[in-house]
Each structure stands twice: as C-alpha cells, then as structure tokens.
Amino acid sequence: MTRRRAGQAIVEVLILTPVLVALVVAFAVVVGRVAATARLESAAQLALAADAAGEPVNAALRGRAKTVVIEPQRLIITVVAPLGDLTTSVPRLIR
After folding, report:
1. Distance between CA 56 and CA 51 in Å, rounded?
2. CB 51 within 8 A of CB 93
3. What does the pLDDT look like over 49-95, one tens digit per residue?
C-alpha cells in the first residue's frame, strides 16, 4: 500500500507542477503590469509639470518613458510593460 501512495504522490506532483508554474508566471506578469502602470502615471505627472513650467519634457522623464510625443493639445507617453507597452495621453496645460 505504501508503494502505491508514493506513486500517487509523484503523479500528483507531476500534474500540479505546470499549474503552479503557470500561476507564478501569471502573477509575475500582473505585478509587472501594475508596476508599469505606476511608472506611466508618474511619468505623466512629471511630463505635465515640466511642460507647464516650460522645461523640456524629455529631460524631465530621463529613462522613465519609452517614448514621449508632444502635440499642440496633448502629451502622449509610452512605457514598457510585460505583454505590450502601455500608453496614455495627457492634455497639455495652455498658458
């Protein structure tokens, strides 16, 4: 009987291992996306503040954003995230 239970335990571990790995990978992706969202919001705040102060927006972001596009009415900011980049647009403050 003990040998059968040991074999059953090995089979259970082999079956559950891919499920556990998939859960860990999904958790890592979600954490990465949440962190990227926080970076995106921070970059948007810094870009908006720099633009309102008349400073160069690209210099204010220094490595926080992948790309910054400055249009007459808005700023478009993109950051790197797992499973694709995140993008937001912020309306510019007109002086």
Report:
1. 7
2. yes
3. 998 888 888 888 888 889 999 999 999 999 999 999 999 999 988 75
